[in-house]
Amino acid sequence: MFGLKRKKDVKSSKNFYITSPIFYPNANLHLGHAYTMTVCDILARYHKVIGEEVYFLTGADENTGKVVKAAFEQNKDVGVFLDEISKGFENLFSRLNISYSQFIRTSDKERHWPGAIALWKKLTEAGDIYPGTYSGLYCSGCESFYTEKDLIDGKCSIHLSVPEKIEEKNYFFKLSKYTSVIKEKIEKGELNIIPDSRRNEVLALLGRGLDDVSFSRPIKNVPHGIPVPGDSEQVIYVWCDALVNYISALGFGEGEDALFEKFWPADLHVLGKDILRFHAAIWPAMLLSAKISLPKNLLIHGFITSGGHKMSKSIGNVINPIDLIDEYGADAVRYYFTREISPFDDGDMTKEKFKEAYNANLSNGLGNLASRIMKMAETYLPTPTPIPTSSFPEEFTKHLDNFDIQKAADFIWSEISRLDESIQKTEPFKLVKVDEKRGQEEIKNLVIGLSRIAHMVGLILPETADKILKAIKENKMFSSSLFPRKD
Ligand code: ME8
């Protein structure tokens, strides 16, 4: 999984570099995080299957006060705490069949720090870093300063807590200088923001103008941060540290940057709506200042809500994805994320809705269809059906090229219904008894149809697709139900 190539690679016909956000390791990941990763994974698998060389980056955002606080509360050394949490992240990704290429940790002094330091130096050389005093309302949950107008009833809208008033020496980044260039790049689609509603939100924000932002913290507040070059009293603040992961992981700033040369600019950053401003304004401004190309696409997803609230570690309404995987299997969780939630909006999830969708569309839908077809194949076909190679249908790829994984899943389920209807219409299990040859032809066609569905569904339900393709190859019924009904 950590197949880091350090030699100069020949550029393949097309590369696809996709990133997830890097997660705060102050607690285990919840369903919202599993959602982000599943969206990334489906798109990464799609680009791999269509022949592109994919690099899929994920990781942990470790240099934060949240982590120090969490380790302290559990009476653990910060390093030990981080190692345990990172193992938990990777365990979840493995249970969910997430096909990532690298897991970057921002506490990694060899892999990440040189990139953050190199970028800071570039911003300084460009004359875009200057010292100042910051005073503001700070939400430690968001690790962000807010103005009064950002708050609802004086509270952070995400953490529902009153921010603290803080005054301190900081270095600032001249974000204001880049407002109009970024706006122009977004308008021209050079930095494409999906969906349009989020693009418009960013354009409105840029239209109002951006203030310069604080880019460092006193070291006494964040002892685990990356030191500011030339000032031992300050550490690089969270965004100039965290956002840099997208290039430090590729070797930027390390002297060995073959991966950077090969994969940057990123084809797609996937992120939730709460960190849009950082990715659509601060990150592009940093890259422009450092004269580095901008990422091509930002896909902004909504929140998985539970009872109408964002599922959040701070609010405490989290569902543990591992429990759901234990009960239903990874594919069922991936199915719900893909088909039952729009990638562009919030989606609510309750255990009841989950079970209902599972029974209707996996147990009855795909599971039932696959077992009916394979039962006929095993009973009436003497040999396995050869599967012709085929590419994805145009409609399916169109949705995936638009990052609309939900519509792509709808397309698969419409194909499942079509095949179901075709069985009802032709009744090959009856036909084969009166006209063996024609009956067998019908069954073979169904097996081929099922293989096409497996090919597409493999992006979303990789374990199920493997089982279906194996059954087809062996011309055998499944030894157990693909999706046992839950009552
Ligand atoms: O924001 N539903 O980390 P994080 C959907 N370290 N997505 C959710 C969610 C929910 N209920 N809750 C969180 C950070 N997310 C920073 C990122 S990137 C350079 C630094 C998403 O662990 C959230 O929107 O708080 C974000 O995209 C990701 O999970 C990580 O959240």
Please state the overall shape, judged from the principal axes of the Cα atoms: elongated
Give the CA-CA distance, first to last residue.
37 Å
The largest pleated sheet is described as: 6 strands, parallel
Query: How many strands appear in the DSSP assignment?
Result: 16
Detail the poorly predicted runs.
1-12
The proportion of residues in beta strands is 15-25%
From the 3D coordinates, which CATH architecture of the largest domain would you assign? 3-Layer(aba) Sandwich
Helix run count:
18
Strands of the widest sheet, in order across it, are 3-2-1-12-13-7
Tell me the name of the CATH homologous superfamily of the largest domain. HUPs
Averaging pLDDT over every residue, what do you get?
92
Helix coverage percent: 40-55%
Q: How many domains?
A: 2
CATH T-level topology of the largest domain: Rossmann fold
**Class by alpha and beta content:** alpha/beta
Radius of gyration: 25 Å
Hetero groups: ligand ME8
- CATH class of the largest domain equals Alpha Beta
Describe this structure in words.
The chain contains 18 helices and 16 strands. Helix 5 runs antiparallel to helix 6, helix 15 runs antiparallel to helix 17 (436-457) and helix 16 runs antiparallel to helix 17. The chain is α/β, with parallel strands linked by helices. The longest helix is centred in the C-terminal third of the chain and has 30 residues, at 351-380. The strands form four sheets. It has a six-stranded parallel beta sheet with strand order 3-2-1-12-13-7, with helices on both faces. Residues 1-12 have low confidence and may be disordered. It is elongated and about 90 Å long. Strand 10 and strand 11 (231-236) form a beta hairpin. It folds into two domains: 15-302, HUPs (Rossmann fold, 3-Layer(aba) Sandwich), CATH 3.40.50; 350-474, Isoleucyl-tRNA Synthetase, Domain 1 (Orthogonal Bundle). It has helices at 31-49, 65-73, 78-95, 113-125, 179-187, 196-207, 238-242, 245-248, 258-263, 276-289, 321-328, 330-339, 351-380, 394-401, 405-426, 428-434, 436-457, 462-474; strands spanning 15-23, 53-60, 102-105, 129-139, 144-146, 164-173, 192-194, 213-214, 216-218, 227-228, 231-236, 268-272, 297-301, 304-306, 309-310, 347-348. The site of ligand ME8 has 21 residues, from strand 1, helix 1 and strand 12. Ligand ME8 is lined by residues 21-24, 32-33, 35-36, 61, 242-243, 245, 271-272, 274-275, 303-304, 310-312.
